[in-house]
Amino acid sequence: MLEAGDPAVTFWPRSSLKPVQALAMVRAGLDVPDRLLALACASHAGDAVHRDGVHELLGLAGLDETALHNTPALPLDPAVALEWELAGHGPTRLTQNCSGKHAAMLVTCRVNGWDLASYLAPEHPLQRAVAATVRELTAPVDGASAAEEEPGAAHVTVDGCGAPCSRRRSRGSRGRSRGSASPGSTTRCRPRRGSRGP
Hints:
- The chain is mostly helical.
- It is built from nine helices and four strands, in the order E-H-H-H-H-H-H-H-E-E-E-H-H.
- The protein has helices at 18-27, 34-41, 48-60, 78-86, 99-112, 125-138, 146-153, 170-180, 185-189, and strands spanning 10-11, 156-158, 164-166, 168-169.
- A hairpin with a 5-residue loop joins strand 2 and strand 3 (164-166).
- Helix 1 packs parallel to helix 5.
- The protein is globular, with a radius of gyration of 17 Å.
């Protein structure tokens, strides 16, 4: 693969890691219809179909939008945001573009009996599972040792939505993410309907 600039540079992937975060949740037992899993992977526009999907996810855990801890925001799509404001609404957790991911995180916590109120804490079992999957899929593929990777991997900040965000290296993110999207990879990682993940 062609490289330009410094392939060892570190950065904060943010929303580009949503599919990887969702994979961690599936491995931890999240089992929802594909359309809801897609919502967990997405930076959604805030349309009614997206808001309804978030409500549906939350309902699977017996929750409502008050359980969400993401940052309130207007819908990401400007036209939808204008419509939302003209209807008399302001920024909400429901309309923020990461609410699908956060709702899926809550469902995953419910499935495992994990605490709901602290689901965004870096030391929470959910976030530890997410961090482990992120490390697995974004570790260097060029023979770099764990010791060489650790300084970048260990630096954690907070994403704009409130979720933990780890600094990663460009080369590792490129190589392992490409592998996770290869043909057949989803069948190895996603449990069959009605079953628990590994």
